[in-house]
Amino acid sequence: MLAIERRNAILEKLQIERRVVVSELSDLYDVSEETIRRDLDKLENDGYAIKSYGGAVLNENSNLDLPFNVRKNRNVLGKQKIAATICDMIRDGENIMLDASSTAVAIAKAIKNKKDLTVITNSLEIALELIEAPGCNVISTGGLATGSSFALVGHMTDKIIRSYYVDKAIISCKGIDMYAGITDSDERHANNKASMFYMAKNKILAVDSTKFNKIAFAKIGDLKDISVIVTDKKPEEEWLRKLEDEGVECIFPE
Question: For residues 70 and 11, what is the distance between their CA atoms, to the nearest angstrom?
């Protein structure tokens, strides 16, 4: 296992368990405790962890975006449920936009058998996923490439996104709050997602249940900007009432 793979695995473990122990990690990955301490030093310097005696705890106050390879392995079943639902909502021959979220990657995998579909995306992973799908035409936005999210972002990305009118834009987010609206941890991603919504007839927010009642750094839009929310679990009744008041349809597994 490469050092970066081991650190991502430790970070994923931190996300789930909230704390890790040096001696346990040393046994788990078959490396020295000193190597694990260096890994934890790196995670602390990057803002993801706080070192403690004998281990580390998750930095709960961090507003940093997790590496894509960590995010795509979280709540995989929930993302698959969302992807299956959205696949049923997309018709052959439509033009759609997909953002660079790990949830959107799951959606891309689900729609590979659609016919005459045009997909505009700023995700490098989605472009690679769909490039050989016979029924999909893929338009990559261009822009500044970011290694942490396998995404293309920035002003050029916005310019390309705003060149196309589409049937559906499907985005995810880091947080959705009744008052703060839809938010993301990175301003560039937030701007690109907002542009996707602006250019779409139907604006679909694909968000798993862990993102409700969370507020991230940069605003994407308000609840009223959403046409449909697709999630993996039934939201609380308070949320269902709020979404109904805002005119937002909410779809979830029964």
Answer: 7
| Residue 143 tokens, joined | 């822009």
Give the alpha-carbon dihedral of 160, 145, 203, 194, to 10 degrees. -80
Q: Is 228 helix (H, G, I), strand (E, B) or coil?
A: strand
Q: Is the pTM of this model over 0.85?
A: no
Handedness of CA 18, 22, 27, 28 (dihedral sign): positive
Tell me: the pLDDT tens digits for 181-207?
Answer: 999 988 999 999 999 999 999 999 999
Which residue, chain included where needed, has tokens 């995810």?
Answer: 172
If you search the block for the tokens 């409700």, which residue do you land on? 212
First to last CA, the chain: 41
| Residue 162 three-state SS | coil
What's the CA gap between 2 and 115, in Å, rounded? 40
